[in-house]
Amino acid sequence: MAAPAQPRGPAAGLAWPARPDPVPAWNFAVRQLRFWLTDYRRTWRGSIISTVLNPLLYLGAMGLGLGTLVDQHGTASLGRVSYLIFLAPGLLAASAMGTGVGESTYPVFGSVKWNKTYQAAVSSPLRPADLFHGHLLFVALKLTMTSAVFLAVAAMFGAITSPLAIAALPVAVLTGLAFTAPIEAWTVTRTKDTSLAVVYRFGMIPLFLFSGTFFPVTQLPVWIRPIAYLTPLWHGVALCRDLCLGIATLPSALLHVGYLLVVLGAGIIAGDRSYTRRLYV
Fold it and tell me: Where are the domains of the chain?
């Protein structure tokens, strides 16, 4: 009679078993990336419309429409630039946050709870961490595409005034990933999708409104400003704006990038652990 199968992973107090072939770890993450790219080939038409329309509508309605009223009352608090020029970099970072949050919630939850694709994948040589890293690579590519489109649309509107704006592209990607990694680490542990709505209602929407996207944080009450300064979105908005205006300095850029990298690194560490705890078999 055959011996019963032994559990894998941390439940057995053992390290994840070695792979059968000496393939580098990043290669397995790339294989998971190819899965997401294959899936995206069948769904990109539905998202490409919103990718182009969102910057058009936001910059048209807020930058030109509302901006006309704001500019009539003076732009001293905006750094003596038009509201459109002030708004566009903030919306670039905020849209990256929205993409990161969207990709790290329902797609991840569905892969675990509804479609069971993650459970099927870990039956192969792929480890839970490979699934996590592969999805982060996919989100990074999608963030690059959507942020590049946003910058192009902003340039068409005349909202870009400095060649340094090209550096805002990787900053926007980093901002999106700083949200993707920790939220994905949390999402994979969920058993009900009702908790995901909390991320949007009490996380993304307040940050979208009060992290300097639409108005300077200095116009908030003094007691709440430190909270805004601690959010990853504020750092992304501030650096994207400084780059697009051509006023970025090396010390401030290093501070913003360093903060976002710390948040991203903490999210990756948490994700490696939460994926392994949830998906070991």
Answer: 85-279
